[in-house]
């Protein structure tokens, strides 16, 4: 497993990947480089907050990152069908977080560090892709975001897991 990064390092990684200046193995940002467009910085802030809420296993902190009409595909068998709104998504996360917190002290309850983050901006929409790599599973994630006023909200989360032997 790779070296764990702080949320600030995660944000830096998002910005670097968005500028095309980093590779999956990069651990620190370059000393100097182009400044990312303001929308990329705002998207990175949203993604960083989303990851912090995941690691804290806190549905109250996670919910504001989703649009009311958001959809999601989870990588768990009981949730094979698409979830159709923020309420359904947060209900599934609440149950997942309960199992994650069981028997642990924290937060953080998880140490998810996005790797190989890519940000693609299309006007008022953006696609963010990354993965988490563990000893047995590679967890791939795609977030589709929409700019709503000055805020970027997740309108779709697609999560899939692969055996690390395949990845």
Q: How would you describe what is shown here?
A:
The chain is an alpha+beta fold and 167 residues long. It has a single domain (7-163), classed as Nuclear Transport Factor 2, Chain: A (Roll), CATH 3.10.450. Helices cover 31% and strands 30% of the residues. It has a 5-stranded mixed beta sheet with strand order 1-5-4-3-2. A hairpin with a 2-residue loop joins strand 2 (115-122) and strand 3. Helix 1 packs antiparallel against helix 2 (38-56).
Measured by DSSP, the beta-strand proportion falls in 25-35%
The multimeric state of the shown protein is single chain
Which CATH C-level class is it? Alpha Beta
Mean pLDDT: 82
Could you tell me how far the N terminus lies from the C terminus, measured between alpha carbons in angstroms? 13 Å
Report the major sheet.
5 strands, mixed
Topology of this structure?
Blueprint: H1 7-18, H2 38-56, H3 59-62, E1 66-73, H4 86-101, E2 115-122, E3 125-133, E4 137-148, E5 151-163
Parallel strand pairs: 1-5
Antiparallel strand pairs: 2-3, 3-4, 4-5
Helix pairs in contact: 1-2
Summarize the structure.
The protein is an alpha+beta fold and 167 residues long. The chain contains four helices and five strands.
Features:
alpha+beta, about 30% helix, 4 helices, about 170 residues, Nuclear Transport Factor 2, Chain: A, globular
């Amino acid at each position: 497993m790779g070296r764990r990064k702080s949320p600030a390092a995660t944000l830096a990684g998002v910005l670097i990947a968005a500028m095309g200046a980093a590779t999956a193995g990069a651990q620190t940002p370059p000393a100097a480089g182009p400044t990312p467009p303001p929308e990329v910085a705002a998207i990175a802030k949203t993604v960083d907050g989303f990851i912090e809420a995941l690691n804290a296993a806190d549905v109250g902190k996670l919910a504001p990152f989703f649009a009311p009409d958001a959809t999601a595909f989870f990588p768990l068998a009981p949730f094979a069908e698409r979830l159709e709104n923020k309420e359904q998504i947060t209900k599934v996360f609440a149950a997942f977080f309960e199992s994650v917190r069981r028997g642990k002290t924290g937060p953080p309850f998880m140490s998810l560090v996005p790797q190989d983050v890519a940000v693609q901006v299309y006007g008022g929409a953006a696609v963010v892709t990354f993965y988490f790599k563990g000893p047995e599973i590679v967890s791939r994630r795609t977030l589709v975001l929409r700019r709503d006023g000055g805020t970027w909200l997740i309108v779709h989360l697609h999560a899939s897991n692969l055996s690390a032997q395949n990845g």
